[in-house]
Amino acid sequence: MNRNELCWCGSGKKYKRCHMDFDAKISTMRFSFLKGQSKPPHEIINNDRDVAGIKKSGVVNDGVLDLMAELIKPGVTTEQLDNAAADYMKKHNAVSATLNYGGFPKSICTSVNDVVCHGIPSPDVVLKEGDIINVDSTTIVDGYYADASRMYIVGGVTTPNAKRLVEVTKECMEIGIAAIKPWGWLGDIGAAVGAHAGKNGYSVVTDLGGHGVGKKFHLEPFVQHTGRKETGMLLVPGMVLTVEPMINEGKKELYIDEVDNWTARTKDGKLSAQWEKTVLITEKGTEILSS
Ligand code: MF3
Ligand code: CO
Ligand code: CO
What we know:
Helices cover about 25% and strands about 20% of the residues. By secondary structure, it is α+β, with helices and mostly antiparallel strands.
């Protein structure tokens, strides 16, 4: 690209004033084949306008998750949570990314106890005291996606085991995000998460993971929550990805419900927890765009 042409990122600035130094830096780097190191494609680099768009979507998305904290109580059904989330999104000019996504029938995912993820809100799932539930919400505002999930303890109290799983899983997400450095590597995230989960006697789900997010729901790279430092894709400013570890009390294996084709449950029937944030990589570190 010529230095006086408009930059490929769509900022409207000349290349020389935008991503020219960025591209030059990447072109001088050596990528280790053995470590599976790769260059980030241009399609997943967001300009300032894109970041502002995702952030705006994130404000609504965080509002959905705040609302869930008020509603989750013994006796409430996950269908009621879905209805409230759908209303909230509508009121805030947002569309659910999950609704009709690959045939998913609801506006949020609600995953209770041994459900790892992709639980479908239902009038038949009645929350009871001590249940742990993950609500995963993704909003689209003006074409920009923001994706986050939190754990909630129904009635505020649960068993010590469940409480510890919820807390350690949150730490896993935080430690994973803290491992993200501009010009660092994707594998740094999984290495940090995996070590923390292992230290606590838990297993990390590997069948599913985080992802790039922004102008689409699921973009490169696939974010594994186990792995080795300095492996995988180079992390650069302008990338937006999710860190969303699914941590199991028992074994990591899961199975997909044969009837609904979505609900992922632990094979051993033990508890699973998950937390998720949408994270922007900046020149200096990271910024949370939805949580
Ligand atoms: N929000 C989930 C994620 O974190 C994806 C849910 S897809 C659905 O990537 F279809 F199950 F909603
Ligand atoms: Co999500
Ligand atoms: Co996600």
